[in-house]
Amino acid sequence: MAEAAVPGSVSTGVRAMFLMLTPNESSFEKVEDVPQYVQQATPVFVGLIVLELVVSLLKTGAPAVTISDGLTSISSGMISRLPLLLMRSCELTAYMYVWDRYRLVELPWDSAWTWWFTFLGVDFCYYWLHRLAHEVSFLWAAHQVHHSSEYYNLTTALRQSATQQFASWIFYLPVALAVPPSIFAVHIQLNLLYQFWIHTELIRDLGPLEWVFNTPKHHRVHHGRNLYCIDKNYGGILIIWDRLFGTFAVETDKVVYGLVSPIRTFEIVYIQLHYYLYLWRRSNTYKTISNKLSTFIKGPSWKPGQSRLGNHAGNPKVTGKEVPHDPSWSLPLQVYMVLHFLLVLQIYNDLFQNKMMLSQLTILGMTIYVLLTLTSLGFIIDQRPTAGVLEMLRCVVMVTMQRYGFMKPLVPSLAVPTEAFVSLSLLYWALQSFTQLLSIKRKVD
């Protein structure tokens, strides 16, 4: 089987995203033979994001995404994949371990029945993974990253957690008792890819498909902080699980997106980790061991004396007139941000493409640089007082990386302009930092 699959084909990535691959072309005997469908679909991600931007401008006169929120969402997606530089996918590694040692039956890898069984099994497991990620606080600490945007567009789909993968693997292990890893490796990607295109406000209703499939209309509800939206519509590909288990809600009032208590920041490390710190501080306010543990294993809204999931009576009231956090900043600074983001994106892509040829020390160093850059850009968007100093230090590192060949221009012909741009960036932020220090000194004197 799988003769029809074309490795590296963008068209394969498109069809994978919309579940248009047949069992015949997407069944493989070995895990090593499974295409990187997500990687193949990357150009499709970019194309659809641009298309959504253009259509929203033509339809509403306003872009579907802001630079600050869009870059933050894409940055979160980048950070979520960084652990893959140092280790194999937790989900696939654990799955193969259970399959090798504990499988009960061995379904044939080249059977369409196995393919469809896995499709249902993976989606069913995803439903419970997703549901418990909302109902168990320490799991929500990871998943809240995906809900932290106050916008709803295709870049929101990329806003993923770096830590959720360290727990999500547990939920797929029942499938490993019967399904070969190669078939699981296909469907874990298809399930993820499908969920990209449903993050949009442009598609309003898909008619009869709404009864069976998760759609933009259903998933908008899931991302809402309206009372009727909270803890609803967990499905990945199919919405039937929500209908069966009583977690389905229809889109009615205007959906207001984001966390119940918006975090109002674009600092990427804070977005990823702030809820863990919140849980720790909250647990320390309780005296009994039972209440301390309950803080982590019960629902995010739980309080002593309440049921496992608590209640949402104390949630801030949603009026429908809420305005997403969107700090004003100059156009030149926005251009600066986009250009530097493209430069770090180039380094990020090179890192993944060449990771097998790089030393662990080089991978670690470049990973730290990516984190430093995304953090610094977040500081600039937030307009923090320390943003200038941090960006100056980052530019020093960037100039050093360029000097030793670790940073390539977006296009070879732009090598000299890129080098000049990087040097001017360092000079600008050095002057900014010096001016800031002089201002502080004068105030002290």
Mean pLDDT: 92
Shape: globular
Structure class: mainly alpha
Separation of the first and last Cα atoms: 78 Å
Q: Which bin fits the share of residues in helices?
A: 40-55%
- Please report which band the strand proportion falls in: under 5%, 5-15%, 15-25%, 25-35%, 35-45% or over 45%: under 5%
**How many beta-strand elements?**
0
Low-confidence regions:
3-7
Largest beta-sheet details: none
Continuous helix count: 17
- Oligomeric description of these chains: single chain
Radius of gyration using CA atoms only: 23 Å
Description:
It is built from 17 helices and no strands. The protein is mainly alpha-helical and 445 residues long. The radius of gyration is 23 Å and the shape is globular.
How would you describe this structure in keywords?
single chain, mainly alpha
Strand and helix layout:
Layout: H1 10-17, H2 37-40, H3 42-60, H4 67-81, H5 90-102, H6 112-135, H7 137-143, H8 165-168, H9 181-197, H10 216-222, H11 240-245, H12 268-283, H13 289-297, H14 331-353, H15 360-382, H16 387-403, H17 415-444
In short:
By secondary structure, this protein is mainly α. It has helices spanning 10-17, 37-40, 42-60, 67-81, 90-102, 112-135, 137-143, 165-168, 181-197, 216-222, 240-245, 268-283, 289-297, 331-353, 360-382, 387-403, 415-444. Helix 14 runs antiparallel to helix 15.
